[in-house]
Write a structure and sequence with these properties.
The complex is a heterodimer. By secondary structure, chain A is of the alpha/beta class. Chain A is built from twelve helices and nine strands. In chain B, helix 2 (103-116) packs parallel to helix 3 (139-145) and helix 4 packs across helix 6. Classes of the chains: A alpha/beta, B alpha/beta.
Chain lengths: 320, 437
């Protein structure tokens, strides 16, 4: 089989789409984080706008419902002075039977410059990137269980903000990893940035042994998993996991894998607690922890806007 | 029509014949092999210099899409594809729409195929009505209509009591039951469980989906004595179970698809929907076990698993794309590639797509069973003439099948395939001839 070029990089190795963190060179990731730093101050200004994407049209294509992620992309695009068009495709064309590629062809004909795509199927943004016009950039805003690269990047921004150096860290990712695109993107980003100790923590139904192939240590015991961790990333537990026979109950999950004040004491004294949101209080995380001094959940949201501005401005500056 | 195929290298895997010579054909049969009777006056002469003259290929798994899925394939397009691939007999599964559970449907299909006279068609009847896994079909009636066995296609029988009864009933009449071993629940995922599926975020099909089903089938064969053909094994663990069952003397045969023989889950790459297949592509160790099992005879036959899928159904995100790939025109080349990779002699390689599949079909072929898949004087003139030294690039435009999607497309592999069919004869008539040049 041919060794195919990573579809998100051009021949010069510059980022033209952001589809996954897997396969991105470390300097590309670091460049995004550095750029995000320069945008952070824009968000504190009275006039929260820079003209980098003026005259560009950004289409938010959400084939799967999401309010939070779509809003942050919309804010980021608007602060870059782009025109933003929100399409809730879950409720429109797809339900009229239009195929994904027909939708893309039609929107391309409207001279879109960037597609921000969320889709319930892993890999859907790759198909779109392959079939859209060459000048169009695609940003993956979450595809199935596969990737959520901007979330991964904002998590890295957050970790770097609080911990500076990646190369001495122990990071625990806890919960429903098998279904989590956030976990996959975090793992790729952490390994790319040189984190030596990444642990995936949860029961065998949610944390399969195959994950070791991604460079993590699989732990089925929570106490062992978060012991001396510098960073704890809690994942959201979907209620479908109970009906799907993956867990008996939210209560039993919380007892073994929920992050309580008691368990948090096992981590480093200056550990930070992260969560991609929205949080289920009392299911994966105790309210006292979510709102406590170790929690950086709200800074994650703030950094998320700057990171998405960085991604969009970098993509817009690179040609296929 | 009298045809003379001249100066070819005649290879007949069944008898071990491998020599330079001529094939003399008259009245749909092979009149003589080796040298030409002095009084023979051919209407046509095919020059086979530099080519192999072999029995026509026998493909145990090819979907033709008729009736019900004509937008994806028509009898005529797919049988033309078969002829272009050197395939002179093929077995089609019953998962058409409606399913092949009525003798009338089977007769109609056989009749239409006969009129086209491009390739012999041997349908499998549905094992249960509508493939619903509840009520047995009229197997004796369906056999009279032309079915060579009974199958559930891609729909596993969930109720093991029904499966037991189906095997008992088939065994009563000596019919073969064709089953793809896959547990209905464990088999619900999209890609083979493993590092690739985990990394890509695709739901997994564990090896246990195959082995659990195999253990059930093997135990039911043991208790009923029914003859079972296992379709398209995909795993090393499955091969081990098959090997043990054969060693025990159970009446079980098996095949593997060209896809599982040559590819692994790593080939999914960046979600290439051409790699969306059932059974899903597994890991390197599985592929190695399948290749070795085909070489040592544990797996009897190699099949194309031909499944034409149209653009609309394939150009979708990986998990939504319809599984399947075109294969009839690739079977010979991929057999040759496997054979040369494995260091096998040509007769042994060709046996996997000629005489072995005929042995699997056995008595179900009736009078054909003594000469299909072979080159025998007095036998049917189903012949494939191919140039082993010529390579070719698989392109959508070049394929006669309506199905254009294949993992082996030149544009994605950059790899040309060995062996080009020059002419295919079915019952002594030319069904395909390569364009000159």
């Amino acid at each position: 089989m041919l060794n195919k070029r990573n579809p998100q990089l051009n021949r010069q190795g510059e980022l033209i789409h952001l589809l996954s963190i897997e396969g991105l060179p470390r300097d590309v990731v670091t460049h995004i984080l550095d750029t995000a730093g320069t945008f952070l101050s824009v968000n504190d200004r009275e006039v929260k706008k820079v003209p980098l994407l003026r005259g560009k049209s950004v289409f938010n294509l959400f084939f799967e419902n999401s309010t939070r992620t779509r809003t942050t992309f919309e804010i980021a695009a608007k602060r870059l002075s782009a025109d933003v068009i929100n399409l809730d495709i879950a409720k429109s064309s797809a339900s009229k039977g239009e195929s994904l590629l027909d939708t893309i062809a039609n929107l391309s004909a409207m001279h879109a410059d960037m597609f921000v795509v969320r889709h319930s199927e892993s890999g859907a943004p790759y198909l779109i990137a392959q079939h859209c016009a060459p000048h169009v950039h695609v940003v993956n805003a979450g595809d199935g269980r596969h990737a959520h690269p901007t979330q991964g990047l904002l998590d890295m921004y957050t970790i770097r903000h609080f911990k500076q150096d990646f190369t001495q860290l122990s990071v625990a990712i806890v919960g429903d990893i098998v279904h989590s695109r956030v976990a996959r993107s975090d793992i790729h980003a952490l390994t790319t940035l040189g984190v030596p100790d990444i642990r995936a923590v949860g029961p065998k139904t949610l944390v399969p042994g195959d994950l070791q192939g991604m460079g993590v240590r699989v732990c089925h015991d929570m106490n062992e998993g978060i012991k001396d961790a510098d960073v704890i990333i809690m994942l959201r537990l979907q209620s479908e996991r109970m009906s799907g026979g993956m867990l008996p109950s939210a209560g039993e999950f919380y007892k073994h894998y929920g992050l309580s004040q008691d368990k948090l004491r096992l981590a480093k004294p200056d550990a930070i607690v992260m969560h991609p949101g929205p949080i289920n209080r009392g299911v994966e995380i105790d309210s006292a922890v979510a709102d406590g001094s170790h929690s950086v959940i709200l800074p994650q949201v703030t950094f998320g806007i700057a990171v998405r501005m960085a991604v969009m401005s970098i993509l817009a500056g690179n040609d296929a | 029509m009298k045809i003379l195929i001249k100066n070819g290298r005649l290879i007949d895997p069944a008898s071990g014949r491998d020599e330079l010579g001529d094939v003399v054909i008259a009245g749909g049969r092979i009149l003589a092999l080796g040298s030409v009777p002095p009084d023979f006056q051919p209407n046509r002469t095919i020059d086979a210099s530099g080519c192999i003259v072999a029995p026509g290929l026998v493909d145990l798994a090819a979907r033709l899409r008729e009736p019900g899925h004509e937008h994806e394939g028509m009898l005529e397009s797919e049988l033309n594809a078969a002829a272009a691939g050197g395939v002179t007999s093929l077995v089609c599964p019953p998962d058409t729409d409606p399913t092949l559970d009525e003798p009338g449907l089977v007769e109609m299909l056989k009749f239409r195929a006969r009129k086209l006279s491009l390739c012999r068609l041997f349908p499998l009847g549905a094992l249960t009505r509508g493939l619903a896994g509840e009520v047995l079909t009229e197997m004796a009636e369906l056999t009279e209509a032309g079915c060579v066995g009974f199958s559930q296609a891609e729909v596993p029988v969930a109720d093991t009591l029904v499966l037991l009864r189906a095997l008992q009933y088939a065994a009563t009449f000596g019919y073969t039951v064709w089953l793809r071993p896959q547990d209905g629940w464990l088999g619900k995922g999209i890609a083979a469980s493993g590092a690739v599926a985990t990394r890509l975020g695709l739901s997994g099909v564990p090896v246990a989906a195959e082995t659990v089903a195999l253990l059930t089938i093997i135990e039911l064969v043991r208790t009923t004595g029914a003859r079972v053909h296992l379709c398209r094994l995909s795993s090393a663990a499955g091969v081990a179970l098959l090997r043990a069952a054969k060693a025990e003397g159970l009446p079980i045969t098996a095949d593997v698809s060209i896809n599982s023989l040559h590819l692994t889950d790593v080939d999914i790459g960046y979600f290439n929907p051409a790699m969306r297949l059932t059974p899903p592509l597994r890991q390197g160790a599985d592929r190695a076990a399948l290749r070795a099992a085909l070489a040592d005879g544990t797996i009897d036959a190699l099949v194309s698993d031909h499944t034409p899928v149209d653009e609309d159904a394939k150009n979708l995100p990986f998990g939504e794309a319809e599984p399947g790939a075109t294969g009839l025109e690739l079977l010979l080349s991929l057999a040759l590639k496997w054979g040369s990779d494995s260091g096998l002699a040509l007769p042994a390689t060709l046996a996997r797509v000629t005489s072995n599949p005929v042995r699997v079909l056995g008595d179900a072929l009736g009078s054909l069973s003594s000469s299909a898949g072979q080159l025998v004087a007095g036998g049917v003139a189903d012949v494939c003439v191919f140039d082993p030294s010529q390579t070719w690039a698989v392109t959508a435009l070049g394929l006669l099948s309506q199905g254009k999607h294949t993992p082996f497309a030149f544009e994605s592999t950059g790899m040309a395939l060995p062996g080009r069919v020059r002419a295919t004869l079915v019952a002594g008539t030319v069904a395909y001839e390569a364009p000159a040049g």
